[in-house]
Amino acid sequence: MKKLLLLVMVLILCLSSAAFAEAAIEKERVKVPLEVSGKAYLLDAMIYKPEGDGPFPAMVMTHGTSRLVADRLKTTADTYYVRQAETFAKLGMAVIFVVRRGFGISDGPYNESFQYPNGTRNYTRAGLEAAKDLGAAIRYFQDKSYVDKSRVVLLGQSTGGHSVTATGSLNFPGVIGVINFAGGRGSSAPDVVRDEANLIDSYGTYGKTFRVPTLWLYSENDHYFRPALAQQFLAAFQTGGGKVDFIALPPFGEDGHSSFVGAKANWYDPVLDFLKKIGAVANVGASLGRAA
């Protein structure tokens, strides 16, 4: 009897371990084609997907911009946000991380800097220019047989967060939600943003045509886009008509702007809740991503 009980316990443990075993992730580095004004470009990108044929809900991810121009060359698809992309792949999503023009080995010059006639920065146009790259990634990914083209989520950090917000305002077919981590542009030094009134206005413009659910996460000690400024982004976006789930993340390190990279424990649960709410992931596997 004792041996039988022991055998049953071992079997239960084995089944439990199998249930929570991490699914294998398939990875592929690809080139995303983009055509702008008659010119063709190829964007560096990395795909992370669960094993199997799908179709899987999809996530299109993109990056921020270093204050140092020379560091833009270091933004490569095989090294950026790897653990974060794997987290979402373990939740059953196919993920593509795309490097925009002017960064890393992606083709083309950097083209996210525009000015108004008075010489101040036109952040609205900058975000919409980045949206051309993200739109190309959306279409490229939706053409994959293993991707559920009707369930696409956009995620970006810093200028990437601003870029996915701009992209969300264009209402691409199949995009069901947008996640903005510490989004903004124009940070030249800690707590200094150039032409910040124009940056606030850009969120108001995007809010006018934004129709899908969006989650915004800004740390309480973000020194790129301080909390009071993030609240101004929020107010402008809401005045424009956009609806937001806003999360004030706990402080992280000396500058919480990097929370997406270094403080997963701070953001994982609200992001998972958002993905569940919009139907991008199911409850199955929720604990796997947290432990990764």
Helicity, as a percent range: 25-40%
Percent strand? 15-25%
- Give me the count of strands: 10
Instruction: Give the oligomer, counting copies of the same chain as homo and different chains as hetero.
Output: single chain
Radius of gyration: 20 Å
Question: Mind describing the biggest β-sheet?
Answer: 8 strands, mixed
What is the count of helical runs?
9
Structural class: alpha/beta
Shape descriptor: globular
Low-pLDDT parts are: 1-21, 284-292
Strand line-up across the major sheet: 1-2-4-3-5-6-9-10
How many separate structural domains?
1
CATH superfamily: Alpha/Beta hydrolase fold, catalytic domain
Any idea what the CATH architecture is?
Answer: 3-Layer(aba) Sandwich
End-to-end span in angstroms? 39 Å
SSE order, one letter for each helix or strand: HEEEHEHEHEEEHEHEHHH
Q: Return the CATH class.
A: Alpha Beta
Any idea of the CATH topology? Answer: Rossmann fold
User: Could you tell me the mean pLDDT?
Assistant: 90
What does this structure look like?
- The chain is an alpha/beta fold and 292 residues long.
- The protein has one domain (23-291): Alpha/Beta hydrolase fold, catalytic domain (Rossmann fold, 3-Layer(aba) Sandwich).
- Helices cover 37% and strands 24% of the residues.
- The protein has helices at residues 2-19, 82-90, 123-142, 159-168, 196-207, 227-240, 259-262, 264-277, 286-291; strands at residues 25-36, 39-50, 56-62, 94-98, 147-157, 175-181, 187-189, 192-193, 214-219, 244-249.
- The strands form 2 sheets. It has an 8-stranded mixed β-sheet with strand order 1-2-4-3-5-6-9-10, with helices on both faces.
- A hairpin with a 2-residue loop joins strand 1 (25-36) and strand 2.
- Helix 3 packs across helix 4, helix 3 (123-142) crosses helix 5 (196-207) and helix 5 packs parallel to helix 6.
- The radius of gyration is 20 Å and the shape is globular.
- The chain starts with a helix and ends with a helix.
- 45% of the residues are buried.
- Mean pLDDT is 90; it is low at 1-21 and 284-292.
